[in-house]
C-alpha cells in the first residue's frame, strides 16, 4: 500500500479557480487509471491523505511534518504555491521523502537540487520565462522596456519579477534596461491610467504579468482608454499557465461556445453582468504578444478531460460531494496535478526496479525521472532533472486568432535561443500593424519633440555643395599625396637594400695558413666539410662580415659609377628574388671604400672549394644532384626580370649546409660591365660574349657556362685544369675566342660513371653555335630521362649512404659487444670465486663495501694430517697436484651447501656459513653436512703417485659472531675478523684425524637439529682459551657412520 499526501487549498477564494481541491482533485483518479493502464506499480494500491494548507507557508510546513511522521506517507503532492512549496520542500528534504510540486509553483529557487534534493516539479520555473523574454527583446532589437505587474496570493508575478532582475544582471543582457517598473495595487481605472501615463514617457515595449485574468482584462481596457493601443506599443504578456491569449472558462456553457482547447479569449467578460467592452479589450489585445509555455498536449481533448475530472472527485478516492447547480469547471492547473501523480508513478517504478528498499528514499526517487506525455503537454526533463520548457511567442492574426510565430528553446546548459517560424516578419507577426515593427525608442522620442528635421528645409544642400568643392580639392591633394607617398615609399624601399658600411662588422680570421682567394667563401677546411667565417680571410674580390649578427659575404666591385634610378629599381627587385637554388641578395653598400654587394653566407663554400677537398666522396648521383640544382637556379633566373645571369662560374655556385647549390653574383649588370675582369675569371664565358664585350650576358651564354661547370664537377678539377696544361689562361681565352674546327674545351674525365648520353648533352651545351645549345628547361627534361630517379633529394641520398655505413658499423659493434660480454662473464666468474657474489656486485657498481657484523655464523677450519711428512715424499709439482685434486673434491662438496669458502693457505681450508647471506640457524647444519661430506669423500680419495697412502684431515668448528669486510685494493680479499675465527682454528688444531671437533657453542647450535649426534670429549686445555668442554660430531641419522668406534683421549 502506498500512502500519498496531498497538500491543496480548499477554502481560499483567491486561488480556488487555479488549484482548488474541488476543481483539481479529480485528476488523481484519472491519473491512477492511466497508471494501471500502463502497468506501473501493479503490485501496489494507493491511499490518499488530504491536508488543506490554503497556500499558507506555516500550514504547509506543519501539515508536511504531520503527513510524514504520523501518516507515514511515501510521497507528497503539493503545495501549489511557491512560498508554501519552499517551506514544505525543506521539510521533505529533511525527512528525505519525495515531494512533487504542481500548480503555481514557479519559483526558481526550487530548482536548486542542493537545497531540495527530494523535489520534482512538473511546472517550469519563471527563470526560464525571464530568459525567453530577454531573447525576444534581443531578437527584435529592443533595448529598453517597462515592467508592470500585479501580485496576489498566488505569488507568480512576484517570483517572475525577481527572476527577471536576475536575468538582467547577467553580462550577456547588459544592453537590456528596465526603464520603468511598477507593481499595481489594484486594477481600478484611474489608478491604472495614472501608471500608464507615467510609463509611456519611458517605454514603448511593456512586459506585463497578472495572476488574475480579470485584472489583465481591466488593464487592457485602460490601455485602450489611454489611446496606447497604436502600432508603436507592444505589450508582452508573461505567463506560465500555457493559456496564452486565453483565460479559464468559468462556466461549462461558455466552454462550448467560445473556448479553444478548454480556454476562452481573455478579453471576453464571463461575469453574470457583462460590461459590453469586449471589443475595446480586443483592440488593445491586438497590440499584445503572448510569451507562455506551449499548450500542445497528447492527452486528447482538453475540454473533455476537464469535464471528466470535475465529476471524478465524487468517486474514489475522495468521495467529495460537489455543490449542486453551480456548473463547476476544472481549475487552471488541474492538468498539472495529473502530471504530478503520473510522474511519481514513473519515478517510483524506475526506482523499485533497481532496489525495492528505496521505496521512501526521496533523493533516490527524484533522480529517476523520465519523459512522458502528460495532460499539460509533453513532460520532458533536462540533465538537471528540471522540466524542459518550450516557450512560444504568439500574436493575434487578422482573424483575431492566436498564432504561434516563434519559440524559445534551451540547450543542455539551459541557454535560451530564439527560433522564428517565419522568414518575413513584415508579412507575419507584424502584419496587423501594417508590416511595421515597433521601436524601443520612437523616432521622435517619447515626448514627440525629437523628430528629424526635413532635409529640404535644412542646410544640407548648401553643405553638399561645399562638400563637393572640398571633395575636388581633396582629390587634387590626394593625387599630389599619392605621388609624394610613392616617392617616399621608393626611398623607404631603397633604404632596405642600402646597407651602411658602419653596420658591417669585420671578423677576426683564425691563423689557418695559406688561403684561396678565388672563391666567395674559400678557406682552409677542418675535418668537417663546413666552412666557418672565422677560418677565412679577405681576398681581392670578396670580404667576410657580420651584419645583424649573421655572417654575410661582400663581393667587391672595383669601380665606382653613379647609380641611377634604374639601378635602384633593380636593387629592390633583386631583394625580392627568392628561390631554393638562388642565393639571397641582401643589399648594396654604397658608402664603403669600394662598392660592395652583400650576399647570404653559405657554410660549405663554392664548388671550387669542394673540388679541392680530397676527403669528400662524390658518386655519380651526388654530381647529378649538384648539376640539377644549378639548372633549377638558372631556370628561375631566366624566367625572372633578369633574364640571364652573365657571370656564372664554379665560384658563383655556392653550397649550403644541406648540400644545396645556390647561384650567387647575379644582376648588377651595369656595375659588372664597368669592371675589368682578369682572364682567369673569363674561362667560363661563352665565345660569342668574349668576342663582343658590350653584351653583359645571354641565356645561351649561361648554358655554355653550365657546361664548363659540369666538366669541373665530373673531373673534380678546375676549369681546363691549367696545372696540367701547357697553355696559360690568356692563351685559353684566345683559343676559345678564335673558334675554328678544333675547339678549345675542357677535357672530361671519369666518364665511365656517367651515361654516354649525358656526355653528349654537355658537349651540346658548349657548342660553338648558339642555336645548337639547348635551353635550360630542355636540359632539365633531358636529365630526368637520362638519370632515372634524379628527383630524389641529395640529403636523402647522403642519409642513405650514412645509414648503410651505420648498418655495417652496427654489425661490427654487435660482434664486439658479444666478445665483450663473453669476457665480462669470465671476469665475473673469476670475481665471484674471489669473494661472495653480493659483495662482488657492489664492487662492480662502484659502491663501497662497508664492514658488516654478523651475530651468529659457523666457522670451519681443516688441515691435512701429517702434511709435512707427506709432502717430503713428493716433488713440488706432485704436492701441487695433490692439493689441487683434494681441494677440487672439497669445492664440489661446498657447491652443494650454503657455505662460503674464505681461503686456503697451504693445506689449511677455511669456510663459513651464515654470511654474507644470513640463513638463520641453518649455518651450523650446513657446516656439519659439509664436514661429514669432506670426511666421507676421503675414504675413496687416493694419491696417484703413492697409492698406498691415505689422506686424513682434522676439522674444527665454532659458532659465534664475526665481522666481515673487503681488505685491500690491489688484490682485495673478503676477510673474517673476530674471536670466533681464532676459536675455530683452536678447535682444528686440537682435533683428531678424520674427526669433527665442536666447541660448546657449536654443539648447542647443532642440538636444534635432532638428526645429528654428538658426544662430549670432556674438558680440554685450549691454548689462549684455557679449559673448555668440547664435543665430537659423531654422525647424522640416515648417513654412514663417521668412524667405527669412539675416539678417546
UniProtKB/TrEMBL annotation:
Residues 858-988 form the Guanylate cyclase domain. It is a single-pass type I membrane protein. Its EC number is 4.6.1.2. The keyword Transport does not apply. InterPro entries: A/G_cyclase, A/G_cyclase_CS, ANF_lig-bd_rcpt, Cyclic_nucleotide_synthase, HNOB_dom_associated, Kinase-like_dom_sf, Nucleotide_cyclase, Peripla_BP_I. Keywords: Cell membrane, cGMP biosynthesis, Glycoprotein, Lyase, Membrane, Nucleotide-binding, Receptor, Signal, Transmembrane, Transmembrane helix. It is an enzyme of class 4 (lyase). The chain crosses the membrane at residues 460-484. Residues 514-800 form the Protein kinase domain. It holds the Pfam family Guanylate_cyc. It catalyses: GTP = 3',5'-cyclic GMP + diphosphate. Its main location: membrane. It is found in: Cell membrane. It comes from the Eukaryota. GO terms for biological process: chemosensory behavior; chemotaxis; intracellular signal transduction; receptor guanylyl cyclase signaling pathway. GO terms for molecular function: adenylate cyclase activity; ATP binding; guanylate cyclase activity; peptide receptor activity; protein kinase activity. One of its GO terms (cellular component) is plasma membrane. Belongs to the adenylyl cyclase class-4/guanylyl cyclase family. This is Guanylate cyclase. It comes from Steinernema hermaphroditum.
Amino acid at each position: 500500500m502506498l500512502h500519498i499526501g496531498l497538500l491543496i487549498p480548499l477554502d481560499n477564494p483567491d486561488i480556488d479557480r487555479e488549484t482548488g481541491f474541488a476543481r483539481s482533485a479529480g485528476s488523481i483518479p484519472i491519473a491512477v487509471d492511466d497508471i494501471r493502464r500502463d502497468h506501473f506499480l501493479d503490485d501496489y494500491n494507493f491511499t490518499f491523505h488530504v491536508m488543506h494548507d490554503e497556500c499558507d507557508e506555516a500550514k504547509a510546513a506543519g501539515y508536511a511534518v504531520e503527513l510524514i511522521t504520523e501518516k507515514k506517507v511515501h510521497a507528497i503532492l503539493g503545495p501549489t504555491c511557491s512560498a508554501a512549496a519552499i517551506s514544505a520542500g525543506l521539510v521533505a528534504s529533511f525527512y528525505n521523502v519525495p515531494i512533487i510540486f504542481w500548480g503555481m509553483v514557479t519559483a526558481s529557487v526550487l530548482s536548486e537540487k542542493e537545497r531540495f534534493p527530494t523535489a520534482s516539479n512538473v511546472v517550469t520555473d519563471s527563470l526560464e520565462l525571464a530568459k525567453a523574454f530577454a531573447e525576444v527583446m534581443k531578437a527584435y532589437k529592443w533595448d529598453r522596456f517597462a515592467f508592470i505587474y500585479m501580485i496576489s496570493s498566488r505569488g507568480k508575478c512576484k517570483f517572475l519579477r525577481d527572476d527577471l532582475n536576475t536575468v538582467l544582471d547577467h553580462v550577456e543582457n547588459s544592453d537590456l534596461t528596465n526603464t520603468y517598473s511598477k507593481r499595481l495595487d489594484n486594477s481600478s481605472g484611474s489608478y491604472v491610467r495614472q501608471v500608464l501615463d507615467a510609463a509611456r514617457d519611458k517605454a514603448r515595449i511593456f512586459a506585463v504579468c497578472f495572476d488574475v485574468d480579470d485584472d489583465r482584462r481591466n488593464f487592457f481596457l485602460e490601455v485602450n482608454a489611454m489611446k496606447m493601443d497604436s502600432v508603436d506599443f507592444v505589450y508582452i504578456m508573461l505567463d506560465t499557465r500555457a493559456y496564452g491569449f486565453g483565460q479559464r472558462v468559468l462556466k461549462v456553457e461558455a466552454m462550448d461556445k467560445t473556448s479553444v482547447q478548454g480556454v476562452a479569449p481573455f478579453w471576453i467578460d464571463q461575469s453574470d453582468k457583462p460590461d459590453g467592452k469586449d471589443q475595446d479589450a480586443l483592440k488593445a489585445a491586438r497590440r499584445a504578444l503572448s510569451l507562455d509555455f506551449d499548450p500542445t498536449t497528447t492527452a486528447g481533448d482538453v475540454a473533455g478531460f476537464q469535464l471528466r475530472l470535475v465529476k471524478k472527485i465524487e468517486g474514489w478516492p475522495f468521495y467529495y460531494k460537489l455543490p449542486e447547480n453551480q456548473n463547476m469547471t476544472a481549475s487552471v492547473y488541474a492538468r498539472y496535478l495529473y502530471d504530478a501523480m503520473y510522474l511519481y508513478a514513473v519515478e517510483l517504478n524506475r526506482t523499485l526496479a533497481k532496489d525495492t528498499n528505496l521505496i521512501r528514499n526521496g533523493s533516490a526517487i527524484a533522480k529517476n525521472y523520465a519523459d512522458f506525455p502528460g495532460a499539460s503537454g509533453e513532460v520532458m526533463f533536462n540533465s538537471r532533472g528540471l522540466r524542459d520548457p518550450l516557450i512560444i511567442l504568439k500574436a493575434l492574426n487578422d482573424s483575431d486568432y492566436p498564432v504561434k510565430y516563434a519559440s524559445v528553446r534551451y540547450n543542455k546548459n539551459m541557454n535560451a535561443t530564439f527560433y522564428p517560424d517565419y522568414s518575413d516578419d513584415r508579412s507575419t507577426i507584424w502584419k496587423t500593424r501594417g508590416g511595421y515593427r515597433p521601436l524601443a525608442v520612437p523616432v521622435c522620442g517619447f515626448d514627440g519633440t525629437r523628430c528629424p528635421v526635413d532635409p529640404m528645409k535644412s542646410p544640407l544642400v548648401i553643405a553638399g555643395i561645399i562638400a563637393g568643392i572640398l571633395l575636388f580639392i581633396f582629390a587634387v591633394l590626394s593625387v599630389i599625396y599619392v605621388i609624394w607617398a610613392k616617392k617616399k615609399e621608393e626611398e623607404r624601399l631603397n633604404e632596405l637594400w642600402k646597407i651602411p658600411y658602419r653596420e658591417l662588422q669585420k671578423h677576426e680570421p683564425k691563423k689557418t695558413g695559406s688561403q684561396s682567394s678565388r672563391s666567395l667563401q674559400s678557406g682552409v677546411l677542418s675535418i668537417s666539410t663546413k666552412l666557418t667565417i672565422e677560418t677565412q680571410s679577405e681576398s681581392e674580390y670578396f670580404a667576410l662580415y657580420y651584419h645583424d649578427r649573421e655572417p654575410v659575404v661582400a663581393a667587391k666591385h672595383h669601380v665606382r659609377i653613379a647609380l641611377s634610378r634604374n639601378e635602384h629599381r633593380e636593387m629592390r627587385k633583386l631583394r625580392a628574388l627568392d628561390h631554393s637554388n638562388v642565393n639571397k641578395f641582401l643589399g648594396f653598400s654604397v658608402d664603403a671604400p669600394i662598392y660592395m654587394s652583400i650576399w647570404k653566407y653559405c657554410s660549405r663554400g663554392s664548388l671550387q672549394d669542394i673540388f679541392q677537398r680530397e676527403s669528400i666522396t662524390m658518386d655519380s648521383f651526388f654530381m647529378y644532384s649538384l648539376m640539377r640544382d644549378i639548372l633549377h637556379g638558372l631556370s628561375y633566373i631566366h624566367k625572372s626580370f633578369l633574364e640571364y645571369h652573365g657571370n656564372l662560374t664554379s665560384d658563383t655556385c655556392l653550397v649550403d649546409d644541406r648540400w644545396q647549390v645556390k647561384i650567387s653574383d647575379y644582376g648588377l649588370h651595369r656595375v659588372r660591365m664597368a669592371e675589368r675582369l682578369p682572364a682567369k675569371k673569363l674561362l667560363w664565358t661563352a665565345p660569342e660574349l668574349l668576342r663582343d664585350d658590350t653584351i653583359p650576358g645571354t641565356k645561351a651564354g649561361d648554358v655554355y657556362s653550365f657546361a664548363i661547370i659540369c666538366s669541373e664537377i665530373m673531373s673534380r678539377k678546375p676549369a681546363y685544369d691549367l696545372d696540367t696544361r701547357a697553355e696559360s689562361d690568356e692563351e685559353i681565352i684566345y683559343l676559345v675566342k678564335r673558334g675554328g674546327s678544333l675547339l678549345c674545351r675542357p677535357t672530361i674525365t671519369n666518364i665511365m660513371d656517367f651515361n654516354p648520353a649525358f656526355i653528349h648533352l654537355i658537349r651540346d651545351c658548349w657548342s660553338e653555335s648558339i642555336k645548337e645549345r639547348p635551353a635550360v628547361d630542355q636540359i632539365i627534361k633531358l636529365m630526368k630521362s637520362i638519370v632515372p630517379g634524379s628527383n630524389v633529394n641529395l640529403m636523402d641520398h647522403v642519409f642513405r649512404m650514412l645509414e648503410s655505413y651505420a648498418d655495417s658499423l652496427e654489425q661490427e659493434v654487435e660482434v664486439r659487444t658479444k666478445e665483450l660480454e663473453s669476457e665480462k662473464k669470465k671476469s665475473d666468474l673469476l670475481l665471484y670465486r674471489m669473494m661472495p657474489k653480493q659483495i662482488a656486485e657492489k664492487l662492480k657498481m662502484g659502491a663501497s663495501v662497508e664492514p658488516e657484523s654478523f651475530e651468529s655464523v659457523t666457522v670451519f677450519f681443516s688441515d691435512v694430517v701429517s702434511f709435512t711428512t707427506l709432502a717430503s715424499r713428493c716433488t713440488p709439482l706432485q704436492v701441487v697436484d695433490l692439493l689441487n685434486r683434494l681441494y677440487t673434491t672439497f669445492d664440489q662438496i661446498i657447491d652443494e651447501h650454503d657455505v662460503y669458502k674464505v681461503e686456503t693457505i697451504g693445506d689449511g681450508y677455511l669456510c663459513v656459513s651464515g654470511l654474507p647471506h644470513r640463513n638463520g640457524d641453518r649455518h651450523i647444519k650446513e657446516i656439519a653436512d659439509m664436514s661429514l661430506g669432506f670426511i666421507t669423500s676421503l675414504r675413496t680419495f687416493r694419491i696417484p703417485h703413492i697409492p698406498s697412502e691415505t689422506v686424513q684431515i682434522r676439522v674444527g668448528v665454532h659458532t659465534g659472531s664475526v665481522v666481515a669486510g673487503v681488505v685491500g685494493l690491489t688484490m682485495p680479499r673478503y676477510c673474517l675478523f673476530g674471536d670466533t675465527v681464532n676459536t675455530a682454528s683452536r678447535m682444528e688444531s686440537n682435533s683428531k684425524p678424520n674427526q669433527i671437533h665442536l666447541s660448546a657453542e657449536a654443539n648447542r647450535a647443532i642440538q636444534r637439529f635432532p638428526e645429528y649426534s654428538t658426544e662430549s670429549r670432556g674438558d680440554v686445555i685450549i691454548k689462549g682459551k684455557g679449559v673448555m668442554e668440547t664435543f665430537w660430531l659423531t654422525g647424522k641419522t640416515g648417513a654412514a657412520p663417521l668412524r667405527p668406534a669412539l675416539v678417546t683421549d
